[in-house]
Design goal:
Blueprint: H1 3-30, H2 33-58, H3 76-97, H4 102-125, H5 134-164, H6 174-209, H7 215-235, H8 241-262, H9 267-290
Helix pairs in contact: 1-6, 2-3, 3-4, 3-6, 4-5, 4-8, 4-9, 5-9, 6-7, 7-8, 8-9
Length: about 300
């Protein structure tokens, strides 16, 4: 390599290292105990405030200016809102996990999917008239049970998936592995920027129109392309067929999750469980190839 080529490569490495350092600082702040406490307090405050607004609306005491932001007079809407905000924070955790391990990130995606299915179950309660009448809840009840069963099956399969995870470097070259980790951190930082922009747009739309676009569906669409980009990045450091198949299989699981998010009841749960089984199968096959047992040394 020429001197000029070495200089360009050094500049690129320097820029990547600086971006990775920014990511590390953000991750450290996110995992801080104070941050966790703040998130918990925000969720509690939102839940109680929404409950207060709903009961005020039910009694005709809500000012007209606030009425558009209380679309339902059902108290269960407060549960749905707080749960949605919890998912927002979980997605941030998902983005940070992208830099730790591909397999860990996929597991986090399924964690979020199971929570989305549970949220869908809770959301059905917002359509119930209070007091609840059995004759009006028979059909929604099937939707609740379907989503809850799907969430439970994914939860159980996640337990198996976590036990089978083997974190091994994709290359034995220490410098190449370090470059790969830096590349993942830069990609995760880009995803944080996209996530912040999408969140800002959704918040603006909600404040101006009292309605919000489909946020999680949009994020998972972007995540699909990020997964494929990660596949191509990994090929720079390891061109192994087995690594390529594993990462491509995980990307396919993300695609199925994305479809599940917009699928009708029953299908959403079924697709989510099928995607989890597929990811589990990919993990089993990859572990058989590597001859791994329980735990490895470094995240891949």
């Amino acid at each position: 390599m020429t001197t000029q080529g070495n200089g360009i490569a050094a500049v690129r490495r320097g820029a990547g290292d600086r971006l990775a350092a920014v990511f590390d600082r953000l991750e450290h702040g996110w995992e801080n105990r104070r941050t966790v406490a703040v998130i918990g307090n925000v969720l509690i405050a939102v839940f109680l405030l929404e409950l207060a607004l709903i009961f005020a609306a039910r009694r005709g005491m809500l000012p007209d200016i606030l009425a558009p932001y209380v679309p339902s007079r059902n108290p269960f809407h407060a549960v749905n809102l707080a749960f949605t905000m919890l998912l927002v924070f979980e997605v941030i955790e998902l983005v940070f996990s992208m830099a730790r391990s591909v397999a860990t990130s996929v597991g986090k995606q399924f964690e979020i999917l199971s929570l989305i299915l549970l949220r869908a179950s809770f959301k059905e309660f917002t359509y119930f008239e209070l007091p609840i009448d059995w004759h009006h809840i028979s059909k929604p009840l099937y939707h609740i049970l379907s989503d809850a069963a799907g969430a439970l099956l994914i939860f159980l399969l996640l337990v198996l998936y976590r036990r089978m995870l083997v974190h091994k470097p994709i290359t034995r070259d220490v410098e190449s592995q370090g470059r790969f980790v830096v590349a993942k951190k830069v990609l995760a930082l880009m995803m944080l920027a996209v996530y912040a922009a999408a969140g800002g747009y959704v918040a603006f739309a909600w404040l101006t129109t009292a309605s919000a676009p489909a946020f999680f569906e949009t994020f998972y669409t972007v995540l699909i392309f990020a997964d494929f980009l990660l596949i191509f990045i990994s090929l720079r450091y390891a061109a192994s067929y087995f690594i390529l198949f594993r990462n491509s299989g995980f990307a396919l699981a993300t695609v199925v999750i994305r479809i599940a998010l917009t699928a009708p009841p029953y299908w959403s749960a079924a697709l989510g469980v099928c995607a989890m089984i597929f990811a589990l199968g990919v993990t089993v096959a990859y572990n058989l190839h590597t001859g791994a047992r329980l735990r490895g040394a470094e995240p891949a």
